[in-house]
Amino acid sequence: MTKWTANELPDLTGRTVVVTGAGRGLGLITARELARAGAHVVLGVRDTGKARRAVAGLPGIFDIRSLDVSDLKSVRAFADSWSGDLDILINNAGVMDIPAARTADGLDLQTVTNYTGPFVLTNLLLEYVTDRVVHVTSQLHRQGKIDLTDLDWRRRKYNGMRAYEASKLAVVLFSLELQSQLTAAGSRVRSVLASPGIARTALAAHSRSNVVNRFTFLTNDPERGALSVLYAATQDVPGNSYVGPDGLGGLRGYPAVRRQGKAGLDQVMAGRLWDATNELVGAVAS
Ligand SMILES: NC(=O)c1ccc[n+]([C@@H]2O[C@H](COP(=O)([O-])OP(=O)(O)OC[C@H]3O[C@@H](n4cnc5c(N)ncnc54)[C@H](OP(=O)(O)O)[C@@H]3O)[C@@H](O)[C@H]2O)c1
Questions:
Q1: Atom of ligand 1 nearest to the CA of 197
Q2: 25 CA from centroid of ligand 1 (Å)
Q3: What would the pLDDT profile of 36-64 be if each residue is shown by its tens digit?
Q4: What are the alphabetically sorted keywords of the record (predicted)?
């Protein structure tokens, strides 16, 4: 048991961090704590007014910018407007078990929010990243199944939970492939995974899986859930580490380096997924 808490965050003065989806939930706690430790925190959010109100009065330097990770135009605009070092990029924004919907780009809303949008954002911002990219995934990646011929749920009947699990496995494979490309290029930048376990936020409010949140002895409060993200963002862990709660099943507890599911360590699949995703977003761009 590590019992690591946000009180042990290093001094982050002079460092710039982007946290996506930081207007509420785990993203807001992550942004708050990183700013308290001295970082200049950029909140990439859909509703800038709500985010501004959320951080009003909190100590630290916050910069609130418009970003809808499900909208590739918005993702590109956010990246195009970036200049200067970006020490830590935290891909936190996410949705869970939502009904089938297509974005303006024609993409599956859940998949693009959790995986494809962050994939594009990361690739566009990578040249500015000096320290690491943190991908917020889920223990549910262990149940994930990816169909490379139908990444975007066009052929198969859509299922909200299956799409969530697949998107979070895609995030784990993205981290694997990104880390291997960074290592091959001799880069010191790291790709790190964070799993909050189960944290009682609004994420699953509309989902049948929300029933788990009633069992508080099984779950983390949001403050503790965010610790995995904070640990992954700031501690000296090896590239492609999977940071998650140290308790039973990785569902609650304090952050520790754990092991991702076997499917998340398949390097061949990770390379194929990278190519298939590039093809998908290339088709949107053209
Ligand atoms: N809570 C858990 O138990 C748990 C477990 C495993 C993984 N996670 C992951 O942790 C991350 C944060 O979840 P949470 O628990 O904090 O949930 P949450 O309270 O529902 O927060 C989700 C955040 O994502 C933002 N978001 C959603 N779609 C977006 C988009 N298209 N563009 C930009 N931002 C968007 C939301 O912004 P709006 O305010 O604009 O809606 C909100 O700030 C997610 O990736 C989730 O999958 C959570």
A1: 5
A2: 7
A3: 999 999 999 999 999 999 999 999 999 99
A4: Oxidoreductase
